[in-house]
Recover the amino acids of this structure.
């Protein structure tokens, strides 16, 4: 159901302006918090201006432009900056100061506009109000096209020119085909019958001549007394050539050593004469080498040098300076089992941590940190998206802001609304000296 209307007074003014050739200037956007409004119910045409105590802001419109695809649609834009607030709003009106007339009204889900307070950055809201009526450009004098950031036309025109002509059969065509007595005429025989060609093929004595042996041919072959005549000897016998080969004194001359040659070699007193000394002896060169005070000069440290180095009180006097010169690095990482919180701690004591925030309800909650900061001098940010079907074509808007107050070394407080689809927090600063995780959570009321 639409939640915006042109008021009866606005409609009457536009009709009069069209008849008399007047220009209607819409120059103000009004924001109010009206009790009891249902954003799913279309406001009435006799919509009055809210009482003064319900009006939170009456501001000049920042931009106005025409829809370049539909000149009968005008888009009015107003930016609520981080310095505006603190108040709720659920009612937006377009007003003509020239004619002192409320032109149009839009009812939206109630949401909070808060302003910057100290280190808490306020939220920034972009409000677009599109109205459509005949000869809108002429009546308002607006000829400049709306900027792309003012209004997203994609959803509005996505289905224009949408056509499936020639891509689908008419509804019921498949059922008609399947229930036909002969859906493929000339291509198939009736169930249980076969064409003459198939019957002739299947009843032939040799339907595939030259491609298969006659039935039983393999059994006849395998049971023959001599299926391969002249190629094999009778079972248990061997040809004379095989017998001659196997009984030869050297059936593979030049390819193997004589039997026992390896054993004779291994049992010889000096199997490699002139190449090795007798067991337990060594050549004079080896003895001279092994008995030298420094057999490998310049290649090894003196005996005990490593032990002396390792036991020295200051074996690497510049090691501390080298370690200090190494870039800051992660020394500890933790993530909650359910993924709702995490932190990374660095060698310098710096810590980064974050987690999820509950959505779907309007509350003020406390975020408890998984790891304690040294003090309240840290930075904490909140990121969330808001789904708003009531303004400029719908969709989600993502916000990034400070949004926290009552900061301590162990926690911080923030406000949540039921409009948020998803929300996260991240904080970074110097950790407390003891470190460690206390299992911080996404937030408590």
């Amino acid at each position: 159901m639409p939640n915006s209307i042109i008021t009866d007074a606005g409609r009457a003014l536009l009709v009069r302006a069209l008849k008399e050739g007047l220009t209607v200037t819409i120059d103000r956007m009004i924001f109010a918090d009206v009790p009891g409004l249902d954003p799913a119910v279309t406001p009435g045409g006799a919509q009055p201006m809210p009482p003064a105590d319900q009006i939170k802001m009456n501001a000049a419109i920042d931009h106005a432009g025409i829809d370049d695809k539909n000149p009968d649609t005008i888009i009015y834009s107003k930016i609520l900056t981080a310095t505006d607030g603190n108040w709720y709003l659920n009612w937006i009106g377009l007003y003509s100061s020239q004619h002192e007339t409320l032109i149009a009204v839009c009812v939206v889900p109630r949401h909070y506009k808060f302003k910057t307070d100290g280190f808490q950055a306020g939220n920034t809201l972009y409000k677009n109000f599109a109205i459509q009526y005949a000869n809108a450009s002429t009546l308002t004098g607006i000829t400049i096209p709306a900027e792309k950031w003012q209004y997203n036309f994609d959803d509005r025109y996505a289905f224009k020119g949408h056509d499936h002509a020639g891509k689908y059969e008419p509804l019921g065509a498949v059922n008609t085909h399947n229930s036909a007595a002969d859906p493929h005429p000339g291509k198939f025989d009736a169930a249980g019958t076969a064409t003459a060609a198939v019957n002739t093929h299947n009843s032939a004595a040799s339907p595939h001549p030259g491609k298969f042996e006659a039935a039983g041919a393999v059994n006849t072959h395998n049971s023959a007394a001599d299926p391969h005549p002249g190629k094999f000897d009778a079972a248990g016998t061997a040809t004379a050539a095989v017998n001659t080969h196997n009984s030869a004194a050297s059936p593979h001359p030049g390819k193997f050593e004589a039997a026992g040659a390896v054993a004779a070699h291994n049992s010889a007193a000096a199997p490699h004469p002139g190449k090795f000394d007798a067991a337990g002896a060594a050549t004079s060169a080896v003895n001279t080498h092994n008995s030298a005070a420094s057999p490998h000069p310049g290649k090894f440290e003196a005996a005990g040098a490593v032990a002396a180095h390792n036991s020295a009180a200051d074996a690497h006097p510049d090691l501390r300076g080298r370690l200090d010169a190494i870039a800051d690095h992660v020394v500890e990482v933790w993530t909650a089992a359910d993924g709702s919180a995490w932190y990374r701690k660095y060698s310098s004591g710096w810590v980064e941590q974050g987690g999820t925030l509950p959505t779907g309800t309007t509350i003020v909650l406390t975020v408890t940190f998984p790891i304690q900061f040294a003090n309240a001098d840290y930075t904490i940010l909140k990121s969330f998206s808001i789904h708003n079907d009531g303004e400029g074509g719908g969709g989600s808007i993502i916000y990034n802001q400070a949004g926290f107050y009552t900061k301590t070394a162990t926690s911080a407080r923030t406000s949540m609304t039921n409009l948020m689809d998803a929300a996260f927090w991240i904080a970074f600063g110097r950790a407390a000296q003891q470190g460690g995780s206390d299992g911080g959570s996404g937030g408590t009321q």
